[in-house]
Amino acid sequence: MPTDPITFQVLRARLSGVVQEMQYALFRTGYSTIIRESQDASCALLDAAGKVIAQHVVLPLHIGAFPACASAVLTEYGDDLAPGDAYLINHTYEGGSPHAPDFFLICPVFVGGELLGFAASMAHKGDIGGPVPGSCSASARETYNEGLHLPAVRYQRDFTTHRDLERIIAANSRSPEVVVGDMRGQLGAVRLGERRLAEIAERHGTAALRGYFRELLDVSEARVRAAFAAWPDGAYQAERFVDDDGIDLERSFRVHVAVRKTGDRIAFDFTASDDQTAGPANIRPPLLRAACAYVVIALLGTDTYVNSGLLDALTLTTRPGSVVDPRFPAAVNTYNPTVHAVVDAVFDAMSHLVPGKGRADGCASRSFVMSGGHTPGARKYVQYELFGGGTGARPGHDGVSGSSVNHTNGRIAPVEIVESEYAARIVRCELIPDSAGPGRHRGGLGILREYEVLEPARFSLRSTRHKVAPLGVDGGGPGRIGRLTVNPGTDRERVLPSRYADLPLAPGERFVLETPGGGGFGPPLARDPAAVLADVRAGYVSRAAAESDYGVLLRDRPHAPPTVDEEATARLRARRARGDGTGDARPDESPAERQAHA
Questions:
Q1: Do the beta carbons of residue 339 and residue 289 sit within 8 Å?
Q2: Can you name the residues that pair with 316 across neighbouring β-strands?
Q3: pLDDT above 70 (res 518)
Q4: Helices (H) and strands (E) in the chain — how many of each?
Q5: E strand or H helix at 186, and its extent?
Q6: Half-sphere exposure of residue 327, counting CA atoms within 13 Å on the CB side?
Q7: Which pLDDT score, from 0 to 100, does residue 410 have?
Q8: CB within 8 A of 455, min separation 6: which ones?
C-alpha cells in the first residue's frame, strides 16, 4: 500500500535529519583538520540493495561513490552480513572511492533479524602511504603510486574491531594516530545512523519502511523525469580543457560532452573526451555520473530529492580507455580538476535547455599537502588544506569571492587552526584585486595565501586553472588564472606548475598561492557604473581596470571618495561600442582635458 503523503514527507525529513546528525557527529569527532575544519566527508543511508535513500549534500560526488562502494561490499560479503558488522573499502576500481584517501565505512542495519539497509560514511584520510606525504602524488602513473588500496574488508564483527586491520593501515601512514582516529570517528557516525534507522523502523514498521524506500526512489526518479519533460527537446555539445595531467606539462587535455534531451530522458555522451592520461588526472564512471547529477540538482533547485532515484534518471555513455573511464591501473588521485571540467562542460551544454540557468566558470578547486617532523625528535604532521577562489557570475548576480565552487563544498581552514597545529605561519590571506572576470555581473575574486615555513617540510600541490582560465559567458570576460610562487621576490623565486609532487622546503622559505577568479556574465560595458564604483571603493577592482574593462572613468573629490564621471564614462562607452578604441581617455585626466580630448 502506498505511503500516505504526510507520512511520506515526515519520513523523508526524518531520514535527512539522521544523515545530518551523523555528519555533525563525524565533524565533531574528527582528529584531522581535513574532517574537523574543512569537512571533507559525508554520510548516507542506503537500502538493502546499496542504493542511496538519504544523503544530506555536503560533497555531491559521493552520491555516485556510495552505491559503487556498497556494491563491492555486497559482492564480497552479501551472504555473510550480520548485526554488529562493519566494512571498509577505499579501492578506486573495485569500489567507487574518488581516490584512495577517501575511506568508505559501512555497517548493515538489522531489525528483527532482517536486513533493512545500511548506514555509511566516506571521509578523506590525510596520508595512507605512497611516495609523497598526503598520498596524492601529482606524478603518479598508476594506482600503485597512490598509497594503500583496500578491497572490501570486514572492520568489525559482532561490534568487535579487527585491530590487525587498524595496525596495517597505521603502519602505512605518516600520521597513523590521526588516520586511525578519523576511522573510529567514521565508525561512531555510522553506528549512530544504525541506531536511528532502527528507531524509525520500530515506530513505522520494517515492512512499511522497506516499502517506503522503494516508493521514495520511484517518486524521486519520476519527479526528475517530469522536470525533464517540461524542457524543450534538443541536442547540444560543450567541452572544457584541463591544464595538464602532471606528467606531460605541455599538453592540456579535453573533456567533451554531447547532451541529448528527448521527452523525459536526458543522455550524456562523453565518448569524444580525450584518452586516459599518463598522470593522475583520470576519473572513474561513478564520479562522472555524480558530476552530471550535481548539475541536474543545481538546475532543478532545492526541492530535488537527492538519492539514487536521481541517478536512475540519467543515461551515460563513455569510451573505455578515456579520461572519464580509464582502464586499471590508471592513476586517479588528482581527479578534481577533471571533474570540474566535466561540471562546467555539462552546465554549458544544458544551459541551452534551461534558459536563464547558465553561469560562467568558477575557479575549480585545489589543495596542497605539507608534511613536517622529518628531523629527530620533531612532531610528525601532514598538513592538508583545501582552497577555493572566485565563483562564476550568473544572471542577476556577481560571483562569490573566496568560495568553493561546483561540487567541492570543503571549507578553507581558519588561519588560527593552521598556525596552532602546524609548523607554518600565514603571512597574508586576502582577496586578489582585478582577479574577477569582468561582465555585466562580474565573477568572484580569487584569494591569496602566503605561508612561511617554520621547519623542514615536503610540499605537494594539486591545483588547476593555472594555464586555462575560467571562461566567461554571454560576452563576459575570463577570470584570472591561478599561480603558486615559491620564494617570491628573491633570487630563488620559482613558479610551480598546477600539479607538483614533493618539493623540499627549508625553514624561512615562503610560498604564495593565488587562486583563480570566476568568469564574468554579460558584456562588461553593460555593468552599472555605480556597481563598478562600489567595487573600486571596496578594493575589488582597480581604477585602471574600471576604465579598461568596464569603460568607467572616476573623478577625484577633495576630502571625499572618488565618484563616477558620468559624462566622460558615457562618451568612453559610446566610443567602445562603436569600436573606436579603448585608449582615448585616461582616468587621471581632468574634466577639461577629457572634454578637449572628446
A1: no
A2: 268
A3: yes
A4: 14, 22
A5: helix 176-204
A6: 4
A7: 83
A8: 372, 373, 375, 378, 423, 507
